Amino acid sequence: MTTISLNDKVALVTGSARRVGRAIALELAAQGMHVVIHHNHSDEEAKSAAAEARKLGVKAAIIRADLGKPKEIAALFQKIEKRFGRLDVLVNSASIFAKGLIENITLQEWQQALDINLTAPFLCSQHAAKLMRQNGNDGGSIVNILDLSAFAPWKTFAPQSVSKAGLKMLTDVLALSLAPQIRVNAVAPGPVLRDEGNSPERWKEIGERLPMKQTGDPADVAQAVVFLASQPFMTGAVLHVDGGEHLQRHE
User: Fold this and answer.
1) Is the CB of residue 30 less than 8 Å from the CB of residue 55?
2) How many beta carbons lie within 10 A of that of residue 176, not counting itself?
3) Neighbours of 66 (CB within 10 A)
4) What residue ranges do the domains of the chain occupy?
5) What order do you get walking across the sheet with 34-39 strand by strand?
């Protein structure tokens, strides 16, 4: 199988100071990519992630931007172009987990979910495409991070479901619009990172309910991103990294 080398190329992972975004950025760095660690408020975590990336022998820039503000998104890409002169991989990982019932959610909460989970990836992809086209035939790769709510409605997470479903459609539209030079795919993680609301016992129970009888790890998502970024014949695809959770939504 022919693959695209990621060595000595440049990647931006939004929301990469912590959690799954951090794992993705560090895995790309392990592949030899110079990485842009983006964050909004996680200053110390961003410095730590950049330090880990540099230990892998690559360059790491830290850039803060509020993805809810289009001007800051534009400035983010201007800084990338000034620092590296190119961009090869964009991973739209930053998001908010937006909870709320349709009858209770405020317009402000609804708009914030759409701004961060859908409009920001759209604007980032627009700016990224301009930089990637400057790479000539090398083009580039965009990977969007979804979740199960993109495919199955979550009643108590209405803005989450709508914004992530929109991101899935955006993936398809971008894949058609930016081909053949730029490939656009998505990864849909399942339970890969335990939050404070789940005890270790509860987390184990969640895993046992999946077809694979176990939960995953952020590294699983990161490896899927690397796979998609290095595949020259894949666009418009979604990789479910969820232990088979998506198979259960029709049960």
Assistant:
1) no
2) 11
3) 15
4) 10-243
5) 60-64, 34-39, 10-13, 89-92, 140-145, 182-189, 238-241
Give strand pairing partners of 60. Answer: 35
Helices 70-84, 120-133: axis angle to 10 degrees equals 30
d(CA 177, CA 181): 10
User: Concatenated DSSP letters for 3-58?
Assistant: ----TT-EEEETT-SSHHHHHHHHHHHHTT-EEEEEESS-HHHHHHHHHHHHHTTS
Look at the chain and count its residues.
251
pTM greater than the 0.90 cutoff: yes
pLDDT digits (tens, 9 = 90+) for 17-76: 999 999 999 999 999 999 999 999 999 999 999 999 999 999 999 999 999 999 999 999
Which value, to the nearest 10 degrees, does the dihedral of the CA atoms of residues 101, 106, 107, 113 take? Answer: -60
CA distance 220 to 222: 5
| 85, 131 contact by CB (below 8 A) | no
DSSP secondary structure code for residue 100 in this structure = B
What is the homologous superfamily of the domain 10-243 according to CATH?
Answer: NAD(P)-binding Rossmann-like Domain (3.40.50.720)
The secondary structure of 197-241, three-state, reads CCCHHHHHHHHHCCCCCCCCCHHHHHHHHHHHHCCCCCCCCEEEE
Q: Which residues, 6+ apart, have CB-to-CB distance to 65 below 8 Å?
A: 38, 40, 72, 73, 75, 76
